[in-house]
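Question:
When you can, review this sequence-structure pair and walk me through the tokens.
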Amino acid sequence: MNHDHAATLLKDSTKSCVCHVPQEGLPRLLAPASAAGLAVRRIDLKGVRSKEALLDRMSSALSFPEWFGRNWDAAADCLNDLSWLPAPGYVLTLENSEELRVRRSGEFSIAVQVVADAAVHWRERRVPFWVLLDAHVEDVPAFADIE
């Protein structure tokens, strides 16, 4: 996929979703996302072994407001708002996520569902919102398969 095609796809809010991108493929998507003016936020999950650490990483990467309650409902509220991070669209990465997926599969599954719900929320508002996940997860399409 070339730079222009990736940028066009990432700006298309009707296709926004959580999708799998191998770690080595992320730079080929993040550059066009930035060039398209989308807010790119990388969430590094290396070493994350608890819900609290996961929420802290999300909060830090997305500059969640002070009122963030450090629970899944509050994370969903923040992801569905993002008024403190104005942009024409958003691209989030969940990187180095395999260890968390294996060791804390329940928390990882909840996190994927929360960001997937946010993608639906933003898609309904015609705002691009992509979550690029480097772990293979059942029912999560590969970015390369989205057209």
